[in-house]
Design goal:
Number of strands of chain A: 2
Structural class of chain B: mainly alpha
Oligomer: heterodimer
Distance between the termini of chain B: 30 Å
Largest sheet of chain B: 3 strands, antiparallel
Strand content of chain B: 5-15%
CATH superfamily of the largest domain in chain B: Cytochrome-c3 Hydrogenase, chain B
Number of domains of chain A: 1
Number of helices of chain B: 18
Number of domains of chain B: 2
Strand content of chain A: under 5%
Number of strands of chain B: 8
CATH topology of the largest domain in chain B: Cytochrome-c3 Hydrogenase, chain B
Radius of gyration of chain B: 22 Å
Shape of chain A: globular
Number of helices of chain A: 13
Distance between the termini of chain A: 50 Å
CATH architecture of the largest domain in chain B: Orthogonal Bundle
Chain lengths: 357, 408
Amino acid sequence: MDLILEILSIPLVQSILKIAFIILLFAMPLGTVLTLMERKWSAMIQDRVGPNRANVGNYTGNGLLHLAADGLKSIFKEDTIPQGANGFLYLIAPFFGLIAGVATFAIIPIAGPIGDFTFQVTDIEPGLLFIFAITSLSVYGAVLAGTSSNSKFALLGGTRASAQMISYEVFMGLALMGIFMVYGSTRVSDIVNGQNEYWFGNLIPMWGVFTQPLGFFLFFTALIAETKRAPFDAPEGESEIVAGYFLEYSGMRWSAFMLAEYVAVAGVAVLMTTLFFGGYHVPWLHLWESAPQWLVTLLQIGKFSIVTIFFCWLQIQLRWTLPKFRFDQTMSLGWKKLLPLSLANTALTAVVVLAFM
Amino acid sequence: MSLATQQLSSLVTPPPQGDSDTSIMKIEIGPSHPAMHGIVRFTTYLDGELIVGMEPEIGYLHRGFEKESENSKWIQVVPYTDRLNYVSPLLNNIGYSMAVEKLYGIEAPRRAEFTRVIMGEISRITDHLTCVGAASMEVGAFTFFLWFIKAREYLWELVEEVTGARLTTNWTRFGGNATDIPDGFFDALQERLDKVKDIMDECDKLLTRNKIFIDRVKDVGTFSKEDAISFGFTGPMLRACGVPYDVRRADPYSVYDEIDFEIPIGSTGDCFDRYLVRMEEIRQSISIIEQAADMMPAGPIMTDERLMHYPDKKEVYGNIEGLIDHFKLVMEGHQPPEGEVYLPTEGGNGEIGFYLVSDGSGDPVRVRMRPACFNYVEAMPAMTVGHYVADIVPIFGSVNMIGGELDR
């Protein structure tokens, strides 16, 4: 027993356990369930039933078994490589997006620390700058897939994807400058704890969405554009360039792209929760001073999950409600409207912070 | 000579493909491609994302309608016409039958004509619903598409009640219709039309003033009046350019001159105008159906001219003339008098014209159909060159190419 505790107290072991916990029990399941959630929810919007056929015996789980069926199907499908494709690049491209999506979760705390133990893989000093670095990596997935497939449609999609993602990263960073200034740090735990303070006594929590309303919209827009989902899905452009950069993929590699998309959706949701909705902090919980620690932790995980699922739902709702932008409209929206707005937001926040804080 | 006609030769000709010229990318869009509704191929030349040249290639769905018709009896052509414009089959049935009636010089009874107006307008609505829905789906409004398909489903159930089939209707005959409307049809009709109206209102809220949608379709595929006329545009495409030409008004056939309706027109002829024109035409068609349902007279649905339809069994067995008519119809089929006619009718997609030649025997000498969307596809290079590759989607969606009608 002592030995186990001793092993568990080694930081490296802890980190590995947390990584396993967050990836295997949070990020991947959420991404997987999102695929079904999206199909079911879009079916509800469109007066359809949605997937309900996969079954074991008579049990269908209201479509839940489709997750297993889709996974099995993808694994057993032939993994094709088109003629003239650059084999190595073609084979590794699907995993950039997936790795980048999962890595986002590394710096997200999903509950408050208990003693020395944090519910966060690592609380690195650069914090959100790490996110920017990682999302830049996911561009490679699209670009490599687009260029190595030896298909003109994929090439167009890859070009669009790289242009769009690089452009939107510019003001994604700028949109967060306000948050950095208000909470005085790029470290995630500082930002989360900063949001646990209150205005007017205990009336309004200082959540990012209240301190940075414009930053909230800008960052959310930028993140949706980063995930390449509707209304910013010109890189996939299913109606004109068929499926864009992953047109030629099949089987599990194709699934890796899809999964990466959904993990990215979940990543957007946890980022929004952490940066703008108080992270794991349950508002006004500090008023109940005698709350047992285990209950607080459970409530925190619950609150974090609910807000996360809300943002996942919001993205699905947006995708099935809005038409999509043309590629050049996406770019002009980014550079001509959102970038100046981000700059204005940054300048305004700087003035306010200097004057009042 | 208008601008588009002058440019046409240079547009359909591919740009030079010199060895040193690597800036132009040739890309084959179609024949099997999500945006190519039927099967059609556009060899597109791109400079980056900009379209600099395009060659449409049609004929992938050619199945020899005209030649097949020449080897059939006149009445056997009716089921072939179902498959022409397969999103509004009844309008083809009606167009063909009315052309043959013109050849004969007879008219269908008034009840048959009013029924044709109702069923024809239902088909026009299904046509527009399909076109607008599919075009919107391709710019990303997938929900909108499925809502429209739901509305279309209500109407196709009505079509099924009357004709017995959703698509392969084979409903009109020469001098009348195969079936009369069933009991309780008008109640069902009114209920369905109300549902369609509700869906239209809902979709209006969702899409018509949506900024993203307007950005995608406004000023895309703009076409001037003169160009539209010189390309031979008809129907919603021409009206969107601002020409109030509608065969139902310009050359009234059936009982359209007794019915009050408006012809919506656009101003610039871009994809947004085409969308609005079609949406308004759906509303006008609903109004036409309601008026025709109110004015519906009682009476027969088939002409009592001889040799147009099988006589009653009582006549066949009890009367020598009935027996002869029956024999001649079975053995020789309909024998319209010698001559040729062209009858334009307003299809869902534009002017559907049937040009028929008869030599007085039981077989058609020539059955030629004027497809509305042939001219639109021909104008695709003129509409798309200079736009982005993503604009092919709304432009081609608004063209509403129907392979069955185009390739015949």
